[in-house]
Amino acid sequence: MRGRMDKKYVNAPFVKRGIAFVIDAAMAFLPALVVYILFTGGFKGYTPLYYPAPLIGAVSMVDLPVAVNEKVSNVTTEEGGTISKTNYSMTATGSRLLSVVVIVMYVGYGTFCTVVYDGKTIGKKLMKLRVVPEDDSRMTKAFLLRELLGKVVVNSTVIVPVVSAFMAAFAKDKKTVHDYIGKTRVIMD
Fold this sequence. Notes:
Layout: H1 14-40, H2 54-60, H3 63-73, E1 74-76, E2 82-84, H4 90-116, H5 122-126, E3 129-133, H6 141-153, H7 160-170, H8 177-182, E4 184-188
Antiparallel strand pairs: 1-2, 3-4
């Protein structure tokens, strides 16, 4: 049986990976942005669009559940004032839950898409790229390691995303730090 690595693969070019990265950053952040705008009337503060560090982005979104809670718990009085009264209605509870879910979606977007869509995120699909394991295995442990440990945890440092960008641009195999962790590579699909 011929394995995946017996085929001739072309490593993904740096520019295509970069464009896919930007698309995925926007896709991961979009649900949070929509919830922010719905509940606060606008987006204020630091934008966690910095996708190579999803933990940092998630920490920056901690004020989303607080903003949602304030919005659903503040009641306008007949005199035009505002009082804070905890709202336990299904709508208010659902709104609070939604604010937490979008943070989880932000952090888990890459992992979910890569595992479920056979190595593709939305950005990779649009750029005709795919993540493949080096050992002919299916999307399993390699992708979870790559996405969760590599992208979420390791890339939430200051230097690793910069090193990874240089590796994707200049290394012969175009592999990044998270590709080495997960024993994967990004190829043209």
